[in-house]
Design brief:
Layout lengths: L5 H33 L13
Length: about 50
């Protein structure tokens, strides 16, 4: 009977965790970018009325 390769299983778990963490980071980055894009920039100083 074949023996279980624990190091292979451990490496696969580590890779899965790393992939999940990277996907979560990308989702947060995308949400942050969309939030910044939806905020309108303040008017330029040239557009302000002169008193």
């Amino acid at each position: 009977m074949a023996r279980t390769n624990y190091s292979f299983e451990k490496r696969q778990r580590e890779l899965a965790k790393k992939k999940k963490k990277e996907e979560k980071r990308e989702q947060k980055e995308a949400a942050r970018r969309s939030k910044l894009d939806s905020v309108e920039p303040p008017p330029a100083s040239d557009d302000l009325p002169v008193n």
